[in-house]
Structures are given as C-alpha cells and as structure tokens.
Amino acid sequence: MIVVAGEALIDLVVTADGERAVPGGSPANVAVTLARLDQPVRLLARLGADEYGRQVAEHLAGNGVDLGWAVKADQPTSVAVATVNAAGQASYEFRLAGAADWQWTPQELPELADSAAIALHTGSLALALAPGAEALEGLLARERQRDGLTVSVDLNLRPSIVTDRAAEQERVRRQVPLAHLVKASDEDLAWLYPDRPVAEVMTEWRAAGVSCAVVTRGGDGAWLLAPDGSLYEEPAVRTVVVDTSAPATRSPAACWPRWPTSARSVTGRPNGSPR
C-alpha cells in the first residue's frame, strides 16, 4: 500500500456561464491517479466539514482511494478560485486561511510501522503551510529514520501563495534529505534557484541523501537522476490533450508502479535501479 499525505481541496472554475467545483489538490490527485493505476493507496487528508468536503470525499472514494486514515475536520475546505474572462485568461484567488488541510497535529498522524505501507508520498502546500506542515515534516523525518519504506516528495511550489524565496529555500533544504525520491519541475527550480543549473541542484540533492530525482520540463520531457548517480534526459511523448488540470501533480503517481517498492531497492541497495 502507498500512503499519500496532504491537501484535498476544491478548484472552483468561474466563467460567464457559471461556476464548476472540481475536487483537486496535488496529493489528492496523486492518490486518485494511483488508484486508477490499480495501486492500493490510502490518503492521509483532513476533509472539511462542509459541502465541498463531502464532494471531495465522494470523489476520492469513488475513484478507489482508501480514506481509512482521513480526518473529519471541523474547518472548511480549501478553495482555489479561477475566474476565466471572455478572452480565456484566468485570475486566481485562494481561500486557504483557517482551512482544514493545514491544521495537522502529530496526534492525527498514524504509526506506519504497524501498517502495510511500502511507500509514503507528500509535498506541495501541505509541506509549506503552517501549522500542519511541521507535523507532516515530522512524519517524514520519523519514516526516513526508520528506513522501512520509500519516502517521496513533490516540491510543487506555489510562489503566488508562499512568496518568501529565502524561506522556501531553507524549507526545501531541510525537507529534501528526508526523501528517497524527489520530484520537481523546471519552473519550481527556476523560481527557487534562479541562478543555478538544474543538474547542479540535482547533484546537491544526491549528496544530501536523495537516491533518485525527477525534474519535469513540460513539452521538453524530463531529467532523471538515477540511483547510480547517472543523469538521464528523456524526451516528452506527444499525445492528444484531454484534460489540462494539474497534469504535473499527477506525474509522481505515474512513476510509482515502475519503481521498486521498498526503501532498500530504491536507495541503491539490491535491485536499486528504475525499470
């Protein structure tokens, strides 16, 4: 079983024709994608006590995501509002203050050592917004130290929400060594480290203890830092676009079925290379 931890929110798309509420959030998207790929997955999420929270829960359960560890929170659901004008341009508003997703306490997080979990994935705003980010970071530290499962982190930075670049650099510096696998986009790294080459950053991550790293590059493909330290460049596969919502946040889920499923294999010990 793969455990995913983090936000499950609503993307509210507003146009001249009305509004449409779509369940989303990077970790929730990863969990849904894993379930659709027939991977057993359980989502550690705090689900809001409102109609949006009910909608999110129905969406997750309907896609086969196990909500056995989800917290029924008293706070409202986080909402990202995208208002689209007649020219198709969107402006964004985020209703995050006091919302359920960011209120984790250590007591709400389960002990994974006694479970069937083989991997833990998290990232995005869940690792950035107080007060809950500290509790999730503690979970990562505990599991990395225990070394009984594979830990992965998707940076998925949001500079429009968390604007302090120096503070984000410090947070990433602290959290990246807690993961065996790290995923980022070239846009993440261009904002976080505007004067540093991507290969230099990935090499630094490896020196800090990361075994594998993936940096997505949109239509230009992706870079992979393999467990043996080799850096590979993979071109993008051209395809017909069906849904443009949050494709990058789903990419970690697409990787998981191809990765070895224990910390020992991913970290470069026996069976240590991606297939």
Describe this structure in a few short sentences.
The protein is 29% helix and 24% strand. By secondary structure, it is of the alpha/beta class.
CATH T-level fold name:
UDP-N-acetylmuramoyl-L-alanine:D-glutamate ligase
Q: How many beta strands in the DSSP annotation?
A: 14
Number of helices: 8
Order of strands, main sheet, comes to 4-1-9-10-11-12-13-14
- Percent range of helical residues: 25-40%
CATH class: Alpha Beta
Secondary-structure map with pairings?
Layout: E1 2-5, E2 9-15, E3 18-24, H1 26-36, E4 41-44, E5 46-47, H2 51-62, E6 71-72, E7 79-84, E8 90-95, E9 119-123, H3 132-146, E10 150-154, H4 165-175, E11 181-185, H5 186-192, H6 198-207, E12 212-216, E13 222-225, E14 231-234, H7 247-255, H8 263-266
Parallel strand pairs: 1-4, 1-9, 2-7, 5-6, 9-10, 10-11, 11-12
Antiparallel strand pairs: 2-3, 7-8, 12-13, 13-14
Record keyword descriptors for this entry.
disordered C terminus; eight-stranded mixed beta sheet; 275 residues; 29% helix; four-stranded mixed beta sheet; 24% strand; UDP-N-acetylmuramoyl-L-alanine:D-glutamate ligase
